[in-house]
Amino acid sequence: MSSLRTSRTRLIGAAATVVLAAFSLTACNDGTGARTDGASTAATPTASSPSDAPSSDAPSSGSSAGSSSDGRPSTATTPSGARTSASKVPVSSGKPVICEGSNTKTVAAPLSRPVNHMLLTVTNTGGKICYLHGYPAVRFGEAQAVPPVIEDSKPQAVVTLRPGESGYAAVNLSAGDDSGSNGYTAKSLTVYFHGPSGNESVGAGAHPPLPANGVYVDDSLKVTYWQQSMADAID
Predict the structure, then answer these.
(1) Does residue 82 sit in helix, strand or coil?
(2) Does residue 110 fall inside a structural domain?
(3) Torsion sign across C-alpha atoms 100, 105, 110, 112
(4) Greatest CA separation found in the chain?
(5) C or N terminus of the chain, fewer CB within 10 Å?
(6) Range 194-214 average pLDDT
(7) Which residues, including other chains, have CB under 8 Å from residue 127's CB and lie 6 or more apart?
(8) 131-174 confidence digits (pLDDT tens)
(9) For residue 213, what are the domain limits?
(10) What is the pTM of this model?
(11) Is residue 162 part of a domain?
C-alpha cells in the first residue's frame, strides 16, 4: 500500500515537470519573449538613425554655395574675371584728331573793337581731343585767294581743344583808315582748316553765317593764327 502511493506521487511530479517544460518552450516562441523583442529592436530604424539625419557639413537649401542669405551671388565665390568685366567697362583710347568742319562748330561775329575786325570761334563738338593747326583759310564770297596770316600772332604751341572747348582767331576785314582798295561786301564765308604741315587743307570746311547785310572787306584782309584764348586772338 505504501509502495503504490509513492509511485503515484512520482508520476504526478514527472507529469508536472513535463508541463512546465512545455510552457517554457511556448513562452520563448510566441513573439512576446525577450528574444522576439530584441530582434524587433535591432531591425526597426529610429528617427535619430545616423544614416537618415542630415550632415552638419552639408549646405542647406537657403544658403547654397556661392549665394548669400538673400539669394544674391556672394562676392567671395564670384569668379574674379566676371566681377572685373561687370565693374569695368572698356574705354576708347580717344586718340586726338585734327579739328575740321565735321567735328567742330564755327561762329563768325563782327567786333566793335578793334574796328573792322571779326572773331572766329571754333568749338570742339566731337568726343575726342582735336588740334587746331596753323590759321584759318577763309574765303569770303567768291574770292579765289586765301588772305595772309599775321606772323606776329603765331602761338608757342598748337591749339588743343578738349570736347566742348573753343579756339579763336581774329580776321582784319578792312583798313580802318579807308586806305584799302578793291573793297566789296561779302554775304557768305567758308573757313577751311589746315593739317600739321600748315599748307594743306583737311576735312570739311565750315560755313558760319554772316550778318544779314554782309561784311565789307578789302585787300587789307588778313587773319591771325588760331589762339587758345579769345584775348590773345583779339590782341
Answers:
(1) helix
(2) yes
(3) negative
(4) 186
(5) N
(6) 92
(7) 94, 163
(8) 999 999 999 998 888 899 999 999 999 999 999 999 999 999 99
(9) 97-234
(10) 0.60
(11) yes
